[in-house]
Amino acid sequence: MLKEYDVIVVGAGHAGCEAAVAAANLGSSVLLITSNMQTIAQMSCNPAMGGIAKGQIVREIDALGGYSGIVTDKTMIQFRMLNRSKGPAMWSPRAQCDRLRFAEEWRLMLEQTPNVDFWQDTVSSLILEGNRLAGVNTVMGIKIMGKAVVLTNGTFLNGLIHIGEKQFGGGRTGEKAVHGITEQLISLGFESGRMKTGTPPRVDGRSLDFNKMEEQFGDENPTKFSYTDTPKLMKQKSCFITHTNQKVHDTLKTGFDKSPMFNGRIQGVGPRYCPSIEDKINRFADKDRHQIFVEPEGWNTVEIYVNGFSTSLPEEVQLKALKEIKGFENVKMFRPGYAIEYDYFPPIQLDLSLETKLIENLFLAGQINGTTGYEEAAGQGIIAGINAHLKINEKPSFILGRSESYIGVLIDDLVTNGTDEPYRMFTSRAEYRILLRQDNADIRLTPRSFEIGLATKESMEKVNKKIKNVEELIKFFKGHTVNPSDSNGLLSSLNTDEIIQKTKLFNLLSRPQISFSDLSNTFSELQTFLENIDSDNLEEVIEQAEILMKYEGYIKKEKDMVDKAVRLENIVLHEDFNYLQLKSLSTEARQKLSSTKPQTLAQAARISGVTPSDISVLMIYLGR
Q1: Is the pLDDT of residue 491 over 80?
Q2: Lowest mean pLDDT among 50-59, 71-80, 146-155, 274-283
Q3: Which of 145, 153, 185, 259 could form a Cys-Cys staple with 4, CB 3.0–4.6 A?
Q4: 10 and 138 together in one domain
Q5: What is the pLDDT of residue 401?
């Protein structure tokens, strides 16, 4: 028997790794159990971190003291800030990573965390004392006692892989499924369900003709995820874009009779926002092509991830269809795509701390809660790890509200609404998204984390310094006046109205045509002020200050709208309300509202997939 641990984390994916380091860095002794030490933090699907709303989550994890942002910065091969053409609430960082180096870096960081021990084995059941967790049993017949357990089993619980008419047990390709945990939890009164996800084929980059594809470059001046002193990305690797065509679709259709998705062999519900290629050509029959993102898996490998071509069709059909794609005429396939079904536990069975309601000191995080995506899993993992430590030390739970973070929105959605399909985060799910930007995650969350002892003193000092610098810069803008003679040349060149009297810099910046850099390049007083700011990252200070000044009115307006929504959310909705007529509602909202027929606006707001934006549409329609 191994020694007793404070926290046992079962599974070493993105959720498990964050849970382990959070609990360990707070002072708990942690055992991280994984079936395979060589696949810790493996990117089972695409080799990327971040994206729309997901990038915000990674920055929030970093602000709390997690490692996902650090590992991403150290191993990324391309960085892009998505949605730059939109407002700052939509800006979302995304990075292509070196898949092998990502997993290696995570393992190195875990090994350098003093309170983390490792054990390669498979957990088969939980040890209980009444309704309290006491430890785990493993397949090797070992009892390991622990005060708290965090289950982060991913897709491994009774995992079943499908490729055409073939099916075999597995948590992912080449790794065994886990049996016993689901059955035990069901016997204890838990409700479980089945979900599915999929992955595309991996191909040999040497067999592709990239000259026939559109090259996709990274940002000219890439930034990063972590607020710590991680290295800046100095060189980048391109991705490429190509498209399917009618020949591809026709070839894929020849395998539909053997598709496990169409012939009923797959019972689990798949991700709505990441459909397989066969699902796309079936659901969107009017489209004659679909975008394919050709993503390299690292600096020193020829392996390519074919993003947008997730499939579970027979491997010979996959290969034949790939050869019809422009640039893929001579493609060689490393391994086929596949679908995987797995058990999950509807998250309404959890408290906001991610502790189960039925078993004390048992926490669930990641895909076991019905989510999809590395970032959503990691965000749950760090919260579960924090709360496991706090619970066994008889301290209050660490709960993030919807107005504080995307992680708070994610967990509140899951625990309050539950989910019957893989949950993915979007900016539209957050009613406070102008407040929950990627640029201010440290200001929002590092103080909260510092209070419980996770964020370091150095991180807190850096945040306080940033806040002070931002405040001083805004104060300068609101207090500094410029003359028409010094300003009108710039204003004229930017096609905005000239001024006829002295004006505050703040008022000029509020104009949509004018950027901070326009003003700093024009007014020497501002340039001198910037040179005297004592900042570790002046670019961050400027970005933060500019957003706060430029969008000051929008932030206030959003708060007012949220206050109104809270006051009016108990408005009655009649049973015969025709939601299908409201084209401003999302397709998902129209479907689910029509099916559920909520009695009140409050009930409508709790339905999974009905976003705050949809509720606003209903309010406007009702004249509220």
Answers
A1: yes
A2: 274-283
A3: 145
A4: yes
A5: 83
Spatial separation of the C-alpha atoms in residues 2 and 43, rounded to whole Å: 30
Q: Are residues 461 and 421 in the same domain?
A: no
Contact 101, 70 (CB under 8 A): no
Q: What is the CATH number of the domain that holds 370?
A: 3.50.50.60
Domain count, the chain: 4
Domain that holds residue 578: 569-621
User: What stretches of 304-373 show up as alpha helix (H) in DSSP?
Assistant: 315-322
- Phi, psi of 493, rounded to the nearest 5 degrees: -65, -25
Residue among 360, 350, 344, 332 nearest 423 (CA): 344
**What confidence score (pLDDT) does residue 260 get?**
78
Q: How far apart are CA 164 and CA 155, in angstroms?
A: 19
Helical spans, DSSP H, in 233-365: 246-253, 277-283, 315-322
The pTM of the full predicted model, rounded to 2 decimals, is 0.89
DSSP string, 359-419: SBTEEE-SGGGTB-SHHHHHHHHHHHHHHHHHHHTT-------TTT-HHHHHHHIIIII--
Confidence band (pLDDT; 50, 70, 90) for 545?
Answer: very high
- Among 242-256, 498-512, 578-592, where is mean pLDDT lowest? 578-592
Residues 240 and 308 in one domain: yes
Same domain, 325 and 354: no
> What confidence tier does 431 reach under pLDDT thresholds 50, 70, 90?
confident
Q: How far apart are CA 558 and CA 57, in angstroms?
A: 21
Residues 189 and 208 in one domain: no
Domain end call among 282, 314, 338: 338
Q: Which residue has the tokens 């430590």?
A: 389
Beta strands in 468-527 (DSSP E): 481-482, 503-504
Give me the mean pLDDT over the 165-194 stretch.
93
- Nearest 5 degrees, angle CA 199-CA 202-CA 205? 150
In a domain, 564, yes or no: no
Q: What's the CA gap between 235 and 378, in Å, rounded?
A: 27
Q: Which amino acid is at 398?
A: F
Q: What per-residue confidence (pLDDT) applies to 555?
A: 80
- Cα–Cα distances (Å) from 304 to 202, 238, 293, 325, in that order, read 6, 12, 10, 15
596 pLDDT exceeds 70?
no
What does the block give as tokens for 470? Answer: 């931002």
**What is 155-202 written as a DSSP string?**
T-BT-EEEETTEEEE-SBTTB--B-SHHHHHHHTT---EEEEEEE--E
Average pLDDT over residues 105-116: 98
Helix (H) or strand (E) holding 117: strand 116-120
Is pLDDT of 273 > 90?
no
| pLDDT beyond 70 at 402 | yes
Together in a domain, 82 and 96: yes
Whether 562 shows a pLDDT value over 70: the answer reads: no
Q: Which residue is listed with tokens 């089993």?
A: 153
153 and 120 assigned to the same domain:
yes
Residue 572: predicted pLDDT: 77
Between the CA of residue 519 and those of 187, 261, 494, 513, what are the distances in Å? 66, 57, 11, 11
Q: Which tokens hold the place of 7?
A: 């926290």
For residues 41 and 106, the answer to whether their CB atoms sit within 8 Å is yes
Residue 148 lies in a domain: yes
Q: Residue 407: what pLDDT?
A: 97
